[in-house]
Amino acid sequence: MERVLVAGANGTTGKQIVKLLKESQYFEPVAMxxxxxxxxxxxxxxxxxxxxxxxxDLSHTTKNIDKVLFAAGSGGKNVVGVDQEGAKNLIKxxxxxxxxxxxxxSSMGADEPEQAEELKDYLKAKHxxxxxxxxxxxxxxxxxxxxxxxxxxxxxxxxxxxLNRRGEITRADVAQTLVRSLHDDAPVNQTFEILxxxxxxxxxxxxxxxxx
Length: 212
Fold this sequence. Notes:
InterPro entries: NAD(P)-bd_dom (IPR016040), NAD(P)-bd_dom_sf (IPR036291). It holds the Pfam family NAD_binding_10. This is NAD-dependent dehydratase. The structure is a single chain. The chain is of the alpha/beta class. It is built from six helices and eleven strands. Helix 1 packs across helix 5.
């Protein structure tokens, strides 16, 4: 089983990702949290946890880690420190420790932050983090969902490198897409957008060309 470090494990989407990884026969989650008080909930489910602050030294977090899933965010409070520089910090450390794949939870609009009417600073930070990942030596997948809802999973999505429309998608379906993107047969060195839709997640990912 591959050990997957989940940055942002304590977040709403992060918790769903950790649960999916725990249930998977392929992956073993390592939940990265910022505060000791956040560790207990994972420990009681026998989930390995590691304390790590994206703005500080992360050298201990990626040891013996096969893949990394970045689902952290500052909730608009510190977009440069966490969403941009924090992501870059973890990318750099993952690269040093020869992590096999880095899956990034990004956001629709991060390709053109200057076009945004709202959340411009956030999208700019996500854009800079995504570009840094693309230029690293890591294999990556960058997933850009629309607005997140807390509805139940549907197991189906719409997907394209550029969907050219706005919309919503459930956090549960985003979590499933991110976990599916960790697999070796999932898109590599690709960036794509997802919204709610009618195509099964596995089939949708197969439509993204994996050979660039």
